[in-house]
Design a protein that fits this description.
The chain is built from five helices and four strands, in the order βαβαββααα. It is an alpha/beta fold. It has a single domain, classed as Collagenase (Catalytic Domain) (3-Layer(aba) Sandwich).
């Protein structure tokens, strides 16, 4: 996997993942699905997370992750490597990890894998799609040495 990852830290939160960790987690989600990809990962605080969630999803307050798949304009080659952008709200990720009793690093990894699968076109809009996406996430995360991310929530 040839991955070009641009990590943008726009958060003052402690214990943010490193560029190397983010790249490893995104690459694991892309393994066998793409040979080359460019992805931007932006780590934000509450204000930016809430603004982006309102602007692009019409929902109030920040969410843990937003995925923005790249859509090529007409005339651009289909073989472009740009996959899209992932925006994670650091305080929300930290809060959720604590609420779920997970190590923060495991939740960061899960959300980056989850978001990357969204960039690849996966969704969880119906039960079958959600089950498949959860299965993929679990397999990928176990391959990275993490526990089943849904185990605590069942």
């Amino acid at each position: 996997m040839d991955l070009e990852l641009d990590l943008q830290c726009a958060s003052g939160a402690p214990d943010l993942p490193s560029a190397a960790d983010c790249a490893a987690w995104v690459a694991a989600a892309l393994a066998g699905r793409r040979t080359r990809a460019e992805v931007t990962v932006r780590l934000v605080d509450l204000a930016e997370g809430a603004e982006l969630n309102r602007r692009y999803r019409g929902k109030e307050g920040p969410t843990n992750i937003l995925s923005f798949p790249f859509e090529a304009p007409p005339g651009l080659p289909n073989a472009i490597d740009l996959l899209g952008d992932l925006v994670l709200c650091a305080p929300v990720v930290a809060r959720e990890a604590a609420e779920q009793g997970k190590p923060p690093v495991a939740h960061w990894a899960h959300l980056l894998v989850h978001g990357t699968l969204h960039l690849l076109g996966h969704d969880h809009e119906d039960a079958a799609a959600a089950a498949e996406m959860e299965r993929l996430e679990t397999v990928i995360l176990r391959g990275l040495g993490f526990d089943d991310p849904y185990e605590e929530m069942d």
